[in-house]
């Protein structure tokens, strides 16, 4: 049997039934990586010897009667996570030789659940791109079209899953870094509620790996099915044992509904600051049609929805306020001078990026107050709705673009160019207020490229968008093996 594209849930069942061993699954996954990854370049750090040893250990544990959630399942880990004995570079050449001594807390949880780590997946430089390439490890290609990006920053993980290199992977998301690669590669990913999953050890080299509470960034699961996302989220979720975990246990509420017809959904396919391409609108439409056909309550507009323009500008300021923390003083002063020259009425995304880069604490506090008002608006919204269906980005995967000045890059939307970073507004819709969002496949473009959508749910009710994703998978289909 070909095991590499079965779900983690199916593999767990096969292992429990004695139909296959972890050693066999691991050897088959390694063979596929060795055969196919030269063309994809998803696995940037191999750990095959330790993986085989871990697989044999999993088989012995099962023979003793042990049964953990991921016992014997081959997985991959985004390069930005610390794994003891393996390099953690974040694609930054000065840190190409940095090797942490301890595992990140999520790697500890994976191993405790019995997972077999095959290796680490490629990332963009500093995790700061919608594409995945760097000087150390090179470029990761999209398995559907090698001329195109797999997305970023968890692009290596998405490409690995689409290629059959392990059943699960863990990534991270600040500007769509889980959701965009899933959308581009035709897989599933879940951005958890802010703070739901501990992130210690997912830190730029050389560390230290402290239990920091991030303002926007989260860590989360990636898989080839919605149910596998839930399986991995159960392993990842929970507070850091060094901080909140001392006092708190996690209990996620169940999904609000079990049937599609019971869901109340707002569908969005256009943003006031950037158009959505025809392929993406068609993907959103397929999901909307499936919901309507199932009897769900579907709306296209609501006065309860927080203002999209204000939300995008606010998100952009927060996102870019953290991007210049390590800039040299002279470069920072040049940014301050440029920002001071902006017109007071300039409310463009370009202006928001520049203002964000030089945001002082007084202005940050004011922006944070506005964010809390948006969060409260979302609470009111989710009293009447269960989820929002909307794009992840305006386009399917685009051709590789390695031009060094990211601010001068353009994104092509149905033949019209737009500023490269404007595509992040859809990711920010969930990220700015800290809401959970599940990326799901929604068909393919006329060129045969995957198209996904995101399902945004209520804060700390992560099981609601995950359940909706599972029901939609049953209705419209899900992952397909790249042709």
TrEMBL record:
Its EC number is 3.5.1.4. It holds the Pfam family Amidase. SUPFAM superfamilies: Amidase signature (AS) enzymes. Gene3D superfamilies: Amidase signature (AS) domain. Keywords: Hydrolase. One of its GO terms (molecular function) is amidase activity. Residues 24-464 form the Amidase domain. It is an enzyme of class 3 (hydrolase). It comes from the Bacteria. This is Amidase. It comes from Streptomyces zaomyceticus.
